[in-house]
Amino acid sequence: MRHDIRFYVGNEYHALASIAPTRTLLDWLREERGLTGTKEGCNEGDCGACTVLVVRLEGARLVWRAVNACIQFVCMLDGAQVLTIEDMRAPDGSLHPVQQAMVEHHGSQCGFCTPGFVMSMVAGRKAAGLAQDERGIDDMLAGNLCRCTGYAPIVRAMRHAMQAGPDHFDAMADDMAARLRALRDGATVDMTGPAGRLSIPATADGLAHTLLESPQARIVAGATDVGLWVIKGLRDLPHVISIGQIADLRRIAATADGLYIGAAVTWQEARAALAHILPQPDEEVFRRIGSVQVRNAGTVCGNIANGSPIGDGPPVLIAAGAQLHLRRGDTRRTLALEDFFVDYGQQDRAPGEFVEGITIPAPAPDTLIRAWKVSKRFDQDISAILGAFSLTLAPDGTISNPRIAFGGMAATPRRATRTEAALAGRKWTEATLAAAREAITADFTPLSDMRASAWYRSTVAANLLTRLYAECGPQAARASTSVHAACTATGEHAHG
Fold it and tell me: pLDDT digit string (tens) for 105-120?
């Protein structure tokens, strides 16, 4: 048992034995350490002005992640090294290649957002397999806002920086790995002070035990949602349990039942595996969940456990037939994901019970799975409506095994059972489409709010069915066959 949290900021070691469990990294850096290069902009994880780097040793490899300091609790940094804009200069005083590129390409105007951009860009240089084309850079910088509209020179600077040589951190890699390795002691952390109690269990068994003792404690993995409760809602959390680094809950594995994702696996960590079995939803939905900073912290299972009716993950996972794994003490149970959501703010979870993981079955080869997110902005926006569809289409056009789920249409993510019934066993024709569109009005009575009116939601839900028909129905297959035949006749190749 340990009674402090230990981490580095730059090259400075910190051991904190007394800190509020919900003290944000942004406030601590600025108010306690005087590191004011990290800016407070929106203070809700949207603008990226507060972006810092969190470096961890995973196996033998250093992993660099850009995160929003405004919604990252200090307690979640146990065992990590934090780098801020103040750490970007080399020991000899020279600028980091990203900083130099920003100067040369005039990437800074008022300068307020610049530190956050630089930190995201440095993380992008460290990311393996990052696409260096325009889209890859846009995806990487989607979590950083420039209110002076200086994006074009920033993108040029990033393109140039991606081609630059090594930075001074490359020479420090062995030393960074050694210091982070020394922080690994496998200990459970328990701290109690005037501002509340912090628990960091070392194992899932320890988490189960702590929750039996304190069922009202609040679990945080990435705090991308809970952080807003504290910052914007001013909520008091007397007991916080941080689970982000519990190895038992960070497992991603292909099993006989499908893809298993543990409760502490982030969206960014899970994306490659999810894209392998759900390629179109990954492209259309998962890459638009928050930003890189949000996906680096927020977890797949946290997106489920918070029970939001507009979470982007649950509708897709429900349509894919996902099974949720829950644990209370030594007792485990599994249920269909759609059955977890009971009502607004209410889930099928007993006191002391927690989400341990989720399994997404591998779809049959002939299964069509599609999902579309509709929001006012493409990047960094909450869904007005999200539709997810799974079905099997026989060669004669007969539909079987339809599973349709929506977010934003009800108090919880929910299946469209009447719409499924209107499709099951029928030929995929315009008449069937019309019947399914009509059934949606019986499935849902959506609300009007700041994101969309009830009329808009109902209309878009029906139109997403039409899009599914247009892109995957028999006429789409016939069109594809005709194009292929025409291209073959002219010696060309058709690309899907």
Answer: 999 999 999 999 999 9
